[in-house]
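Page header: ASSEMBLY MODEL / two components / 225 residues total.
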Amino acid sequence: DQQVKQNSPSLSVQEGRISILNCDYTNSMFDYFLWYKKYPAEGPTFLISISSIKDKNEDGRFTVFLNKSAKHLSLHIVPSQPGDSAVYFCAASATGNQFYFGTGTSLTVIP
Amino acid sequence: ETGVTQSPTHLIKTRGQQVTLRCSSQSGHNTVSWYQQALGQGPQFIFQYYREEENGRGNFPPRFSGLQFPNYSSELNVNALELDDSALYLCASSLSGGEGGELFFGEGSRLTVL
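Prediction written out in full:
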């Protein structure tokens, strides 16, 4: 059973606009969340994290929002750049050692 | 700072064989986790090693086993390979030992089982 879901397999956004990637989870015990970016033939690269004591975390162009009541998090990229084109994974953990990953959203930023 | 390195990058095995994948953790990291990523899926947790002991295991059969060495490098061993074991195997290191730290991934070892 998929505990972390990314329901949009793909997303296309114009350069300079905002990209919003969504992630839903089912386990209310999850308390730590990560976002990763993955280029083909490379391992996932860590982007940003958020713990359940916060509802927002910002790092440069990347902001993650957490809505615990809805069991939903989102990653906002502003402004989007062509180099942001990649597959984005969200991941969640309750224990801190086992992370559950979504199936990924492929983002294409159009120049 | 040296990142996570994995070897080999690609390998082909036949059903029933055994495979060993290797991982060197990022400098200063004491925890290694292994994930399996099948085509079109997200990474799935196999197990984690912290201070040379298994520190959590996902839903994988016992023929998936691991080791962590005193220098924090790690091995993943898979016995009696099955066709469904074909996947990208990712190693990730962290500082946390289960305290919610970020995972830093290597580029993976792509295993094909024929």
